[in-house]
Amino acid sequence: MPADTPKIPGVPSSTVPPVEEPTTPTTPPEPKPDQAEPEVRTATGTPADLPRGRAQQGEYLTTAQGARLTDTDHSLKAGRRGPILLQDHHFREKITHFDHERIPERVVHARGAGAHGVFRATGAASSITRAQFLQKDVETPVFVRFSTVLGSRGSADTVRDTRGFATKFYTEEGTFDLVGNNIPVFFIQDAIKFPDVVHAAKPHPDREIPQAQSAHDTFWDFVSLHTEATAHTMWNMSDRGIPRSYRMMEGFGVHTFRVVNAEGDTALVKFHWKPRLGVHSLVWEEAQLINGFDPDFHRRDLADAIEAGAYPEWDLGVQVFPDTPEQVFEGIDLLDPTKIVPEELAPVQIIGTMVLNANPTNFFAETEQVAFHPGHLVPGIDVTDDPLLQGRLFSYLDTQLTRLGGPNFGQIPINRPHAPVNDMFRDGFHQHAVHTGVAPYKPNSLDAGCPFMAGVTEGAFVDLPVEVPAAKKEREVSRSFDDHYTQVRQFYLSLSEIEQDHVAYAYTFELGKCYEQSIKERQLQILANIDTGLCEKVAAGLGLPAPKPTVEVSDLPQSPALAQVGKTWPVQGRLIGIVADDTTDVDQVLAAVQAVDAADCVPLVVAPHGGMLGGVVPISRTFLTARSIEFDAVILAAAPADKRVQILVDETFRHQKTLAAWGPGAAALEGLAAPGVVVADDPQTAVTQVLDLLGTHRVWQRDTL
Ligand code: HDE
Predict the structure, then answer these.
(1) Which tens digits make up the pLDDT trace of 475-490?
(2) CA of 612 to the centre of ligand 1 (A)
(3) Low complexity compositional bias: what residue ranges (predicted)?
(4) Beta-ladder partners of 518
C-alpha cells in the first residue's frame, strides 16, 4: 500500500502497520500428535503417490491460472470507500468459484459418511460365482458410504430412519457396487412408487418440517394406506431404526441377485454384511439427546474408530437359493423386496471380510462425489427381475447426471474403476481426458478394429440368457406379492420382549406426533392385523380404542436371528467415561485408564476442568462438555457435588448402561442398587466388571425406560 495514500477527511489513518507483501513463505509447523491427519488413501493413489495433506502446498498464493497474487484480503475499489471495480478479476474468480462450491445434495441418502478399506474373499463363493474378487484370498480395495435416507446433508445422524450401506468394490474386472441398506426389506414392491414414498417421508412441502423424521402426518398417511410398506415400517420402528454406530449395523443387498459360476451354473443369492462387533442400537431418548448434543455422532464414531486403529470389520455372506423358474424358496417369492428369507431356512454363508482402515482425505471429493449404482456389475453377478431393482437400474445413473454435472463423473478419482477403461465415450461436460486418435467408434478399420469384444474366457460380462415367461404387457405385480402381514408378525414375534416394547413405544411416539385422527386409526388397524397385543399397547398410549383384526394372519416359526438382545459381543472401541476430580488418587485413575486402554476401549477422563489431572492424566472432557450419550459406560472415581455429574449418572442409569465406582466414587451411586451398577474395591476390578457387562451392550434387566 503506498505510504502516501490520501487520508479520508474526518477519518483517522489506520494505526495497524502495513503488512510487508508478499509475505515470506515459511514451512508450516509439524502437526501436533493429536492433529496428525489419517493416512492418505484414495481410490486412485497410495500414501506414497499423494502429497501430504495441507491445503496450501505452494510457495505463493496464485489465481486459478497460476498468476501470483499480492493481496487476497481486499477487493479492488475506486478509492478506499468506493465501489468495487468490475475489472477485479481475482475477486470475481474467487467469489464465482465459491458461489458454485455446492452441488445438489442426493435426493435421498443426502447425509452420509464414508471410509476406505479392503475386502478379502475366503473363496467360499467360487462354487457359485466366477466373479474374480470373490475367489480365494483375492483382496479388493473398497469405498463404503453409510447414510441416513430422509435428512438433508446437514441433518443429525441419530434420527429414526433406515441407513444406507453402499460398498464400491474396485475389482480387476470392473467396479461392483453393492448398494444396500441396514434393513433387509423395502417400503415398496415397484420402483414406480419411489417418488410417492419419498415425498411422503420427506419434510412437508409447505414449511419444510420436520427434518429427517418419519414422525409426521404425511409419512403415516402413506404407509397406513399402502400396506406393502408395513414390513419396512416395522423394521424402522424397531431398534434397527436407531443404530448405535455404523460399525454395529448389518447390511443387506435387499434384492435377490443371480450369480453364475465358471461352469455356467446359476444360483440366486441375497447378500448380507455381518458386523464383527454385533448389531446394537441406541435407545430412543438417547438418540434424541444425541441429535442435540452431537449431531455428528455416527460420522465422528466411524472416523474416530478408524483413526484410532480400531478398524471396523464385516463378514460378507450370502443366502443361496436354487435358480428355479418360479424364483420362490420355501413359499417366499424371492423377487418381492418386502420379504426376507429367515436365516434359519437359508443360513448366511460367509464369503469374505471387509475391513475399513482409512478415512477419506477430503469429504467432498470422496464421500460427496462418490456415485453408486446397482447396475455396476461384474462378470459372475447379475440382477433379477425384482421390479424394485429393475427401476433402480435406471434411477442411479439418471440422478447422478444432474448431481455430478454431466456424463463424465466416472472420471472423478473416487469413481474411477481400477480396471482399464476403454469405453469410447467422448466429450461432454467436465471431460478430463485428452483422447487421442480419430476412431472412437466400432466397427472401425482406422484403429485396426480396436478395441475388440471380449468373450467369457477373456472375462466379459455376459448378460445371462434367462427365460422370460410368455406374458402380456400389464401394470401389475405378481399375486404372490399380496401378503403384507405374515412376515411382519413373524418379525415382531421373533424380537425379545424388550425389543417388542421398543417397537410399541416407537409407534406410540411417531403416531403421537401426527395430527390427523384418521391416520392414527388406520395405522392402528394395521397393527391389530399384525398383533393385537402390540395394537392395544399403542392404542392405549394414543388414548384411542384398539380395533379388532380385519384379516387373519397365520403364525410362522420365529426367527431368532432377527433379535438383537440376548447375545454377547466383542467390546473393542467402546467409550468409557471415568469421572474424577482434584481430590482423586491420580495413580488409581491412571490404572483405570490403562486397563480400559488395554481392552482396546477408549478411556475418557471427565473432570471439573480441562488440562491434566494431578499433572499426570490428560482430561478428555469437562463437566461442561461431557454428556452421558457419549459413553457406553461410566466409572466414578469421585463423587463431586455437581449437578452435571448427577445428570450424567441419572442418564447413564436410565439408558441401561453400566455404572461402576471404586473408593470415593461409590457415594455417587448410593441408592442405585440395581443390575449393572457395580461398586468395586479397586479400579482394575471396576474396569473388568464394566467390560464384562458391556458384552451384552446394555444392562437389559434394568427396566428403566
Ligand atoms: Fe436408492 N437411490 N433407490 N435404494 N439408494 C439413491 O442415488 C432409488 C433403494 C440406496 O451413498 C439415489 O446417487 C430408487 C433400495 C443407497 O451415494 C437415487 C429406488 C435400496 C443410496 C436412488 C431406491 C437403496 C441410494 C439418490 C426404488 C437398498 C445412497 C442419490 C426403486 C437396497 C448411495 C443417488 C450413496 C441412493 C433411487 C430404493 C439404497 C435417487 C428409484 C431398495 C444406499 O438414485
Answers:
(1) 999 999 999 999 999 9
(2) 47
(3) 11-24
(4) none
298 catalytic per annotation? no
Place of cell 471410509: 115
Q: Is 390 close to ligand 1, i.e. is its CB under 6 Å away?
A: no
Nearest-CA residue for atom 20 of ligand 1: 180
Q: What does the radius of gyration of the chain's CA atoms come to, in whole angstroms?
A: 29
Beta strand residue intervals within 257-340, DSSP E: 257-260, 266-275, 313-322, 328-329, 332-333
Nearest to 637 by CA among 609, 658, 662: 662
Nearest residue (by CA) to ligand 1, atom 22, is 396
Terminal Cα distance for the chain, rounded = 67
Question: Residue 41 — left, alpha, or beta (φ > 0 → left; ψ -120 to 50 → alpha)?
Answer: beta
Calculate how far, in angstroms, residue 377's C-alpha sits from the geometric centre of ligand 1. 16
Separation between Cα atoms, residue 680 and residue 298, nearest integer Å: 32
SS3 of 76-101: the string is: CECCCCCCECCCCHHHHHHHHHHHCC
The DSSP symbol for 365 reads: I
Largest CA distance in the chain: 93
Cβ(400) – ligand 1 distance below 6 Å: yes
How far, in Å, are 51, 54, 118, 246, 417 from residue 41 at the CA level? 11, 14, 12, 21, 15
| Superfamily (CATH H level) for 112-415 | Catalase core domain (2.40.180.10)
For 154, 350, 649, the CA distances from 121, given in Å and listed in that order, are 36, 9, 45
Give 460: exposed, middle or buried? Use CB within 10 Å, 0-12, 13-18, 19+: exposed
The reply, when asked if residue 396 is annotated as ligand binding, is yes
Strand partners, 320: 269
Give the mutation target among 392, 397, 399 for probing the ligand 1 site: most ligand atoms within 8 A of CB: 392
Q: How many CA atoms lie within 13 A of 519 on its CB side?
A: 19
pTM score of the predicted model? 0.92
Domain layout of the chain by residue ranges: 112-415, 485-562, 575-694
Distance 398 CA to ligand 1 centre (A): 11
CATH 3.40.50.1820 fits 485-562, yes or no: no
202 closest CA partner among 256, 149, 166? 149
* Helix, coil or strand: residue 144: strand
Please name which of 130, 405, 445, 469 lies closest in space to residue 267, comparing C-alpha atoms.
130
- Measured from the Cα of 252, ligand 1's closest atom is 32
* Three state DSSP letters for 221-249: HHHHHCHHHHHHHHHHHCHHHCECCHHHC
Strand partners, 145: 114, 166
Ligand 1 atom with the shortest distance to the CA of 394: 41
Into which CATH architecture does domain 575-694 fall?
A: 3-Layer(aba) Sandwich (3.40)
What span, in angstroms and rounded, lies between the C-alpha atoms of 55 and 35?
Answer: 14
Q: Which residue's entry shows cell 480396471?
A: 419
119 is in an annotated binding site: no
* Catalytic site includes residue 359: no
Q: What ipTM is given for this predicted complex?
A: 0.95
Residue 73: pLDDT band by 50, 70, 90 thresholds?
A: very high
Q: Which contacts of 546-551 are long-range, i.e. CB under 8 A and separated by 24 or more positions?
A: 547/521, 550/525, 551/485
CB 485 within 8 A of CB 186: no
H or E segment to which residue 658 belongs: strand 658-662
* 320-377 per-position pLDDT tens digit: 999 999 999 999 999 999 999 999 999 999 999 999 999 999 999 999 999 999 999 9
Which ligand 1 atom is the nearest neighbour of the CA of 191?
Answer: 31
